[in-house]
Design a protein that fits this description.
Two copies of one chain form a homodimer. Chain A is built from twelve helices and 18 strands. By secondary structure, the first copy, chain A, is an alpha/beta fold. In chain A, strands 6-5-4-3-2-1-18 form a seven-stranded mixed sheet. Chain A has a seven-stranded mixed sheet with strand order 7-8-9-14-15-16-17, with helices on one face. In chain A, strand 3, helix 2 and strand 4 form a beta-alpha-beta unit. In chain A, helix 11 packs across helix 12. The longest helix of chain A is centred in the middle third of the chain and has 12 residues. The two termini of chain A are 39 Å apart. At the A-B interface, helix 2, helix 4 and helix 5 of A face helix 2, helix 3, helix 4 and helix 5 of B.
């Protein structure tokens, strides 16, 4: 029997998987000349998830060379315009690009009929299937599941009903150690058994213990997107222990009264939630246009939660556990 | 009686007025990484008129430092998304910026209720008055008039009902010659009579002939915005003799079959209309994303109509007669 090709070995060796988070925009409410409205793409190595779709999001997708045909899921956190006004345009662009794969849209129910009317008045009949999944922003619930991942909607505290999204990777397969199997005559058709944790009987009768040739899988990753929201302590329980928490930091503490009035958060609020929830990494975003530079966000958050970074637009971050 | 200040003299000398045309975007249907969707601002020296409002238009307005509070009139040519999907966002931004002046919106009637629903689901109640003026795209009619200008909607030929817009300046006042009045004892309170073409009796009894001290006013300017449209010969009569014609040139002749299919025009089509209408200047825009460079547009149009230019985004053009 011929051995596996190098490519097949690599596939079975389960190269480390992480999430890639691309920040398409980081501005709240009104865009600035330097920042687009907030939106992100999360790539879990299998799917692209577009989180919120503001005016200009598709323009940024082009600029950052995001492959449009890889976006099969769009999640809309709430129906303030700075989170979904780009959706009609993007859905139309998919149509003009000749998309045929189904697109899944997760959003508050009220959006569906308005989208339909927009398409009616613009005489647009989409050439691809658009499946609308109504999300109830008042409950925590699994809204998506595949063999790699679940996504839960989590209720936030904002002026209108708003969902955060919690992405949880499922436990992965064991990793085969290339060094450990070298010289052993293991048919590659048996690799799957090893990945699933089984021992293996070799052709010569020797039983290979699974632990001799495999490594623990990477711990599954989790990422929570929490925007827009006021400081909301119950959120800390919902995102307890996540690897990466994105939390809006529209304001600084010097503008905390505005934050309270508008049901937004300060950088300090975000850090307090991260600390209470014992997350590993905090990412800040959705910045008010009043702040021309953002270092003060970190100066405010880091003393409370050290492992804080800015989610800056145009960047793609590798999220690992 | 003290004489007029220098500033008052300048005001009465009627500095030459022209239109300023700022191209916010020049792309059709799908934006490119270099070009935004088509939209323009026409400044007639008294008002700013925003013509079409696509996704990204407000972003370009910020980048080009257009003063948002000066935009009091928005005209929407038709209800394809690449001409109006930026409108909800821009109207919301005016609201967030604390606008209080009335905003006039001229658009096909069907847009009004969809806008209202978008504002309902996004819990937006505009703080400023928004006056909606329904435009019938099937008729040629004056849709706006003030003491300086009229705007007519003109029916174009597209897949859905579409209006072009024809801006006509009204005849101006006569211009007082600073040289000619030097040394004469003309009270500045009498300048208005001279501007309106009257002779003047000086304090010493001498009658000053109007033609001795004034110059003919500048001929009134006209600008026609024609997008989107197929090649449509009746258009030439409607824009006969205009100073500046903006005509879409989505395609080149090599793609004429697409132009016919989509009810768009080629650069050559635009030039033929300009020639037939005996306009003075032709501006091309609304370019398909398939063309990475635009020189070929001019190479195609200029042999038919020499005085052709590209309306390139980011530029402000001074339109004179």
């Amino acid at each position: 029997m011929s051995g596996p090709s190098d490519r097949e070995i690599i596939l079975y060796l389960c190269l480390p998987v992480s999430f890639k988070l691309t920040i398409l925009g980081s501005s709240s409410a009104t865009p600035t000349s330097e920042r687009f409205f907030s939106a992100q793409i999360l790539d879990n190595g299998h799917q692209y998830f577009l989180i919120d779709c503001a005016e200009g999001t598709q323009i940024q997708m082009r600029r950052l060379k995001i492959r449009f045909q890889k976006v099969n899921h769009i999640l809309i956190s709430h129906l303030h315009g700075d989170h979904f006004f780009g959706l009609p345009g993007l859905l139309t662009t998919f149509h003009l690009l000749g998309r045929d794969q189904v697109l899944h849209l997760y959003a508050p129910a009220a959006l569906q009929s308005v989208l339909e009317q927009l398409f009616t008045i613009s005489a647009t009949r989409l050439v691809y299937p658009l499946e609308f999944h109504a999300v109830d922003p008042l409950v925590q619930a699994v809204i998506y599941e595949d063999k790699h991942l679940t996504i839960e909607s989590i209720p936030l505290e904002h002026r209108i009903p708003t969902s955060g999204f919690l992405f949880r990777e499922k436990a992965g397969l064991r990793k085969i150690s290339k060094q450990a199997i070298e010289g052993l005559d293991i048919p590659y058709t048996e690799f799957s058994k090893l990945q699933h944790g089984h021992d293996l009987e070799l052709p010569d009768g020797i039983v290979l213990k699974n632990s001799q040739v495999t490594l623990d899988p990477q711990p599954p990753l989790s990422y929570a997107y929490c925007s827009d929201t006021a400081y909301h302590e119950p959120l800390a329980d919902m995102v307890k222990g996540v690897d990466h928490l994105f939390h809006e930091a529209t304001f600084l503490e010097e503008d905390v009264s505005l934050a309270r009035e508008k049901y937004h958060s300060t950088a300090r609020d975000a850090a307090l939630i991260a600390k209470k929830a014992e997350v590993k990494h905090l990412w800040l975003g959705h910045f008010s246009a009043r702040y021309k530079t953002l270092e003060m966000m970190l100066e405010e958050a880091c003393p409370v939660f050290e492992n804080t970074r800015l989610a800056e637009e145009g960047n793609t971050y590798l999220l690992t556990s």
